[in-house]
Amino acid sequence: MNLLLLKSKHLSANHARISGRQLEQLVNVQRCAIGDNIRVGEINGSMGNATIVELDASQALLEVDLHSPAPPPLPLTLILAMPRPKMLRRSLQTIAAMGVKQVYLINSFRVEKSFWQTPFLKPEAIEEDFILGLEQSRDTQLPQLHIRKLFKPFVEDELPAIIKETKNLLAHPVTETRCPIDIQQPATLAIGPEGGFIPYEVEMLATAGFETVHMGPRILRVETAVPALISRLFPG
Hints:
By secondary structure, the protein is of the alpha/beta class. It has helices at residues 20-29, 85-97, 123-137, 151-162, 199-208, 222-233, and strands spanning 4-6, 11-12, 15-18, 37-42, 47-55, 60-68, 76-81, 102-106, 144-148, 167-171, 187-191, 211-213. It folds into two domains: 4-68, CATH 2.40.240.20; 76-233, 3-Layer(aba) Sandwich (Alpha/beta knot), CATH 3.40.1280. The chain is 31% helix and 26% strand. Strands 1-4-5-6-3-2 form a six-stranded mixed sheet. A six-stranded parallel sheet has the order 9-8-7-11-10-12, with helices on both faces. Strand 4 and strand 5 form a beta hairpin. The radius of gyration is 20 Å and the shape is elongated.
């Protein structure tokens, strides 16, 4: 945890109380004590520092000074076919850590119906994974996750407005075009499920304005492809 993220309800004037996972991290991992200074931020707000003024087994009281803006978001919208639930958690944390703020989680022919029943899609679980990613990378701005379970209506009805004035790329191993590097413009990136999008889905996305690109001869897991592609498009 490189940044302790505080919810608005935990802040009162210039003080905040924390407990649970964050307290455990401070005490057992970071070995903090009263008087120590730590990096903090308010969810969807500013970042700064805090001094631990009280600390016991159940909670900590922090004196907070928020004065710095969050880092700028990546100009990227990510369209991600629903991965396996355990892979979903890791992917959401990575997406948040890398600065992506708009994510569409969509259905695909190769997505198992059972995946949509996972408790990891509950709002509180999604928020927790995003917070873990933000705490890792020192960011405060929560991504927005949009769930779309019908592929065809999403591509035909919503996608044209989403991808307007962006460079639209579809990660697909069966193509001759290599993924560009450092594109210097807003982009929309689509990544399929295990096994990739089926030809019908690829055709629909191509018709909508997506260019198919690849990362090389190796086919990567979704959790690996997500950071690899984002880093290639926006190396910082």
